[in-house]
Predict the structure.
Amino acid sequence: MFNSANDEEWRLARLERLGLKEDPFKLSADPRFLFLGPEHLAVYRQAQGVISRRRGLALISGDMGMGKSSLARRLYDVYAAEENVLICYIHTAAFKSAMDAARQISMALNVPPQRSFQRQMEGLERLMADAYTARRNVIILLDDAQLMDPDALEVIHRLYNFDYDSKVVQVIAFGQLEMAAVFETNKAVNARVFVRLALPPLTLSSSLQMVLFRLRVAGRNSPLIDDDAFELLYEISQGVPREMIRLCALATDSLLQSDATTINIDIAREVTKP
């Protein structure tokens, strides 16, 4: 009979044999393992600039697994700790309508729900007015924004019509490439976009740094993957961070079952077979 506790003990013992205190390639969103390579760090800093300089609306796009949600969570964690900031993070902005968007954003900002769209927007606008008086920066992070109904953009339109000498609300929308088409349906909102940023694939060097970083967090200070094996894993991953981590996780599982001390080319070939 399978015993999950015994299996976990065995796994931890095998990881310790490799100098690891924990699994370095968890797919869960553990902030300790978040690595921003030069390509993604540049996008992160530009997003920070939009927020700190109160530029308004920014779009950050990228394919699945490129690290958009990790970037959004990092921004949330950083700004949630600041005093003069009011921030919310909608992790799946699949708004079905303008009312749905207004209500979800209101609830995330602790604005009481209302029965009509007009009343709901009035509540949000009062929040903006109070934030302006208190010199607070309101930040709305929308993840998976490609899923929203175009009608939901009316909320952003209303918020930016409610403008002052400096922008009270900064909206950072993260989404897959088709997010651009959603915003193009509303000319008024699309014209408000201050900057459009794209998360590119990681280079071989950045992927290596990401893997070494994760190993260090997990307790190992030396490489775990042979050079030729790493190059194969990178080639198959195409520089997509989530895919690289998934392949490394599979390779580590295979390593734990073997007598090898590093992930060699044979293990890499095994886990990348079609």
